[in-house]
Every structure is written in structure tokens, then in C-alpha cells.
Amino acid sequence: MPLESRVPRNNTEYVERGGKRILVAFVSKELLYPLFGSADIGGNQARVREDLSPHMKRFVRAHEIHHCVDEKTWGGWLGRELRANSAGAAEDPIGFLQVVLKSVTSMDRIKLIIDRFRKSA
């Protein structure tokens, strides 16, 4: 089945993961930029930018869903991101590579990552 047919065409979907029912909303770039997605840490809602490539959407979706179900506390913010990136990369390794490439070529993304790292230190 082509990847594009596995990415929901409507704006929301529910995913069952880790004993939770998680609402995933696909939203406009303007709502999240420079983020690719966001999630309520430990909650039941995740958001993914609808303008991303199908591979990036799959990676970001898995990444944000993992944030909703991740109950581990080791490593603080960096640990959470490493665990979520691992979950996303397992779901779509090409999407992971695309996210990395877009992140290192965007000054807005680089500033965001530096800012988050400083706040977590």
C-alpha cells in the first residue's frame, strides 16, 4: 500500500497506544511553525503539521504519540526527545532523515533547538 494512502486525509484520527486513546490532529503550518509537531506530554493529544511530506508526517506522528505515552523520566527533556526520536525513526526512518535534514538547514529550527536545550540545562 502506498505511504500516502496510510496518512489520514481528514484532519484528525484516534490512535490507541499504551492504554490511551490519543487524538492526533493534522494542523496548518502557521499553528506550529517552527515546530513540526507537538504533544501534551503524558496527555492524550498530539498535533502534526499537514504540510509535511508523507514520510515526515509518519515520523512526526509516531514521535508525538510517543510523547503522550512515555512515562520514563530519565534524561529530562533530552531523554524524552531521544526516546521519541527512536520511536519515530522505527516507524519511518526516511521521515527521520528528512526531519534531520530540514532541521539542520533551517535557522528557525536551529534556534528553537538551542533555546530548548538551554532551558533544560
Structural description of this entry:
Strand 1 and strand 2 (20-27) form a beta hairpin. It is globular and about 35 Å long. It has one domain: Orthogonal Bundle (Arc Repressor Mutant, subunit A). It has 6 helices and 4 strands, in the order αββαββαααα. Helix content is 55%, strand content 18%. With 121 residues, it is an alpha+beta fold. The model has no long low-confidence stretch (mean pLDDT 90). It has helices at 3-6, 29-32, 54-69, 76-91, 93-104, 107-120, and strands at residues 12-17, 20-27, 37-39, 45-49. Strands 1-2-4-3 form a 4-stranded mixed beta sheet.
Shape: globular
Order of helices and strands: HEEHEEHHHH
Sheet with the most strands: spatial strand order: 1-2-4-3
Helix content: 40-55%
Approximately what portion of the residues adopt beta-strand conformation?
Answer: 15-25%
| CATH topological fold name | Arc Repressor Mutant, subunit A
Number of strands: 4
Q: What is the assembly state of the chains in this entry?
A: single chain
Would you kindly provide a brief summary of this structure?
By secondary structure, the protein is of the alpha+beta class.
List the helices and strands and how they pair.
Blueprint: H1 3-6, E1 12-17, E2 20-27, H2 29-32, E3 37-39, E4 45-49, H3 54-69, H4 76-91, H5 93-104, H6 107-120
Parallel strand pairs: 2-4
Antiparallel strand pairs: 1-2, 3-4
